[in-house]
Amino acid sequence: MEYCVRSLPLITFLQWVPDPIVMEFLVFMKKLLIALDYDGTYTEDPKLWDAFIALATKLGHRVICCTMRYEDTEGDEVKDLLRGKVERIFFTGRKNKTESLSAHEVFPDIWIDDAPHWIFQDAL
Ligand SMILES: [Mg+2]
């Protein structure tokens, strides 16, 4: 919705353009923040997710990794595989992902997670 408010004059102009072109343009304008899980998601097919991250980034989207692992004791593997590919890696230490990221003022548009309940629940 944020882009709609800022782009009001542009959208008014785009009313004169055929719908498929308008939709493609609006999709082009909306840059997504995508949170990718590590265990059970990235680990299931790293080549697939590497290609996804590269394409999403090329299209202007931002990809971060959000894992419930503890950074100090379990983080090295994640860093080795994802550093330089994703924008940032967040380790929540078994805390639910939405609260952990919101504490950093990070609010993903899309979550990619094999176990989506951990987005909202702590794992203690
Ligand atoms: Mg997982």
UniProtKB/TrEMBL annotation:
Top-rank taxon: Bacteria
Protein name as catalogued: Uncharacterized protein
Species whose genome carries this gene: Candidatus Contendobacter odensis Run_B_J11
